[in-house]
Amino acid sequence: MPGTARVLRNTFSWSHSRHETFLECPRRYYYHYYGAWGGWSWDAETRVRRIYVLKNLKPRQVWAGGVVHEIVADALRDIRAGRPVAAGPGREAAEGAVARLRREFRESRDGAYLTRPKQAIGLMEHHYREPVPDAEWRELAEAVRLAVLRFHEGPYLDEARALDAEAWLALEDLATFEQEGVPVFVRLDLAMRAGDDGVTIVDWKTGRRAPRPEGLQLATYALFVQARWQVAPSAIEVREVNLSSGAEGRGRVSPQQLEAARETIRDSMREMRARLVDAAENRAREEDFVTRPGPRTCPRCVFREICPETSIA
């Protein structure tokens, strides 16, 4: 009926990030995907709203990596649209990234995220009043500056300029394919045609981890490419580029890797659904998702404020 508001439903789905969260701590998974649901609404219950605020907090490394990703994606979108992107060292883009970090840092420090959790950046370190030396904040900004410079000074802009319009397949687009009737969500940094029948998937990384093109995340992306564009596994190249270090890993996807990824997704979905009180309606209870405390996971969890293992309330 015209004018009827669309009712959002929390339906079951799978993604690599959802899988990683569930493995790390089922209670954290519950807070993120169930406890925070509806927290964006003006009439949300107080606790639901609080969980939603916590869900949107970002550890500083994740925040910094996200800024790099967005700047890279914006530059590639400009090229795809035929808009000019300056060649050369990219100092302007790098300094713009640092200026953005400073602006968002102040926004977080001043607590804007408490009333605008989706629009304003909230850093976990500010929320929990964690003492971070000024030198570490400066190192983080320098790492972002260097990553943006590395992107602009590398071959990536020229490679993008050489693409025909029809060669651009995906660029930070949220998309899905189905496995056993369940939506599997992916967001590819970049996917492009390679030759007549091939596809290259590019995944940008920041941080210290070495490239790992054979991992589950990129295999899931390859499953999406195969389903969307009917590409043979042997024609899919995965390319993981670490803009922090300049290291790059490339690989081809084998049918065995794709089948192993399907099996992992199948098992993961089964374990997630087994915790639900009503799988058909995707209803969950907090007490059915146990905490998994650990010396590495708890200190970097955004839900410490409400978790029974670490509650500071």
Descriptors:
3-stranded mixed sheet; alpha/beta; 10 strands; 2 domains; 313 residues; single chain; globular; Lambda Exonuclease, Chain A; 5-stranded mixed sheet; 42% helix
Q: Give the helix tally.
A: 10
The structure class reads alpha/beta
For the largest beta sheet, what order do the strands appear in spatially?
4-7-8-9-10
Distance between the termini: 45 Å
Order of helices and strands: EHHHEHHEHHHEEEEEHEEH
Q: Cα-atom Rg, whole angstroms?
A: 21 Å
Overall spatial form: globular
Mean pLDDT: 93
**Helix proportion:** 40-55%
The total beta strand count reads: 10
What fraction of residues sit in β-strands?
A: 15-25%
Q: How would you sum up the major sheet? A: 5 strands, mixed
Notes on the structure:
- The radius of gyration is 21 Å and the shape is globular.
- The mean pLDDT is 93.
- It folds into 2 domains: 14-159 and 290-300, no CATH class; 165-274, Lambda Exonuclease, Chain A, CATH 3.90.320.10.
- With 313 residues, it is an alpha/beta fold.
- It has a 5-stranded mixed sheet.
- α4 (60-80) packs parallel to α7, α5 runs antiparallel to α7 and α9 (216-229) packs across α10.
- The chain has helices spanning 16-24, 26-35, 46-55, 60-80, 91-109, 124-127, 134-153, 156-161, 216-229, 255-274; strands spanning 14-15, 57-58, 122-123, 168-170, 173-179, 182-188, 190-194, 198-205, 236-242, 248-252.
